[in-house]
Amino acid sequence: MSLVGELNEKLAQFVAEETKNFHNERDKKLLNQLKNSEINVEGIIKNWEKLFKDNVMEFAEQKGTSDEEVFAAAYHKLVHSPALETILQVENSYAKTVMNTLKSRDEDIEKLTQKQTEEMEEKVRMLNISSTEEEINELAAQQFEQQALVAGRWGSQLDALRQTQRAQHRAWLMDTLQEYQSTSALNTPSNSPLATFSPESVSLPAPVAAGGARLEESFTIHLGSQLKQTHNIRIVAMDLLDLCAVEQVDNPAESSRRLQTALSLYSGELAGCVVLCSSPPRRPAPPTTRLLAAADLSTEHHFPSMDAQLRDISERLLEP
Predict the structure, then answer these.
(1) What secondary structure does DSSP assign to 55-118, as a single string?
(2) CB-based contact 98:161 (threshold 8 Å)
(3) DSSP summary character for residue 279
(4) How far lies 300's CA from each of 122, 162, 169, 261, 262, in Å?
(5) In angstroms, rounded to a whole number, what is the distance separating the alpha carbons of residues 265 and 72?
(6) What is the rounded average pLDDT for all residues in the chain?
(7) Is residue 69 predicted with pLDDT exceeding 60?
């Protein structure tokens, strides 16, 4: 063994022995202090607890209150405040704008369809006279492309409108909540979205007769012989999707339904209905298509769009 190797071995033995002696002396000293109650055990525990929490907070995933939870709390507080009427008027105005845009879309598509039908009928009538099958097929392809372009243009316009309304509505609600918390009285803020609509757009006209045949009966029952309990019950025979249809936003029945929904949102009293269908979500068919049409007519700023929800359902169904 060389001199260098022997020196390294002796140094390693010395370091190991002295390290062992150091720990033994330190532990013996600490044990004696513990026996003589010279150590603040509670202080050591609190210090370790603090160090553990700091370490966990540093490396653990940060989970704070989400924007959806903040908005839910703000909306629930505002609908139970004097701002309720203003909120309903704003939502009603947003719904009118969407319904007017949908009406313009349907009229535009209807005019295009009528024009294309007349062109196709004329081509078919003149078949083998001044037109050929190739020309008819080419016209059909052009008409299909025109329909797709018009539908895409209106779809983009509606998506942009809904996203803008959703952002404006949420920002306005948060500003209104701050005003409500800082003042004892709450009036319509100067930045209310109602300022962009005419006064006529938020006024309620005379009641409109409800369409569709329905049978209903309301009655009260009393249960219990001594401590009586009273229950009000209404039985209705109707098309379930009529509950989801929005014919006119100015209808007092629609205003009442919007009021009830606003008061029940983000609470334990939210009611709903289940629509059963045999078609998969990716290829919707009645009654899903009717439900989608009703959802398009309603201004909804609380949940994801129907398309997004159906897409999520389809993806979950494919999961193992």
Answers:
(1) HHHHHSPP----HHHHHHHHHHHHHTSTTHHHHHHHHHHHHHHHHHHHHHHHHHHHHHHHHHHH
(2) yes
(3) S
(4) 44, 9, 10, 11, 11
(5) 8
(6) 80
(7) yes
Model pTM score: 0.62
Compute the distance between CA of residue 134 and CA of residue 128 in angstroms, rounded to an integer: 11
Q: Using CA atoms, how far apart are residues 101 and 160, in angstroms rounded to an integer?
A: 12
Report how far residue 124's alpha carbon sits from residue 263's, in angstroms, rounded to the nearest whole number: 58
Locate the domains of the chain by residue range: 3-59, 69-189+214-318
Give the C-alpha separation, 97 to 162, whole Å.
10
Residue 123: is its pLDDT beyond 80? Answer: yes
Rounded CA-CA distance 110/314 in Å is: 31
CA distances, 146 to each of 26, 119, 132, 143, 155 (Å) = 88, 13, 21, 5, 14
pLDDT, tens digit, 9 for 90 and up, residues 261-274: 888 888 877 677 78
